[in-house]
Design goal:
The chain contains 7 helices and 2 strands. The chain has 132 residues and is mostly helical. It is globular and about 45 Å long.
Length: 132
């Protein structure tokens, strides 16, 4: 079976609600499959878990705000559903290789990426760490 419509539905659902708490049960209803099945399909076809994908999209959008606004890091973190600065910093560093403060200071280039057919979003380039 071709599950590309499921991936498309997930991408669109997440992008349209990136600043909201993502309701996984509602997402499953939108796809027409059970949540365990959606999770399984998503991981098999993308190589990442659904929760990791959601975090990556939240961080990518938050990163754009960090570069293009002067809003406080905590405000941005809360807008994207993180409970506070520490949690946001931990997730941000895991995904980007930067802390939010370092990211703002170094100003890496963000790109536009194709998430799936017809759905585009903000792309991140992970900080490369050179061996010493």
């Amino acid at each position: 079976m071709d599950y590309s419509i499921v991936i498309w539905s997930v991408c669109l659902y997440v992008e349209n609600r990136v600043k909201e708490e993502i309701d996984l049960e509602e997402l499953a209803v939108q796809t027409g499959f059970s949540l365990p099945h959606v999770r399984q399909i998503f991981r098999r076809l993308t190589g990442k878990t659904l929760l990791r994908y959601i975090q990556e999209r939240k961080i990518a959008n938050a990163a754009w705000e960090l570069l293009h606004t002067d809003r406080d890091i905590v405000e941005v973190a809360v807008d994207y559903g993180f409970s506070g600065r520490d949690v946001f910093t931990r997730v941000f560093r895991r995904i980007t290789g930067y802390t939010p403060r370092e990211f703002r200071k170094e100003r890496p280039v963000l790109s536009r990426v194709k998430l799936c057919a017809g759905v585009f979003g903000i792309g991140l380039v992970r900080k490369s760490v050179l061996p010493r």
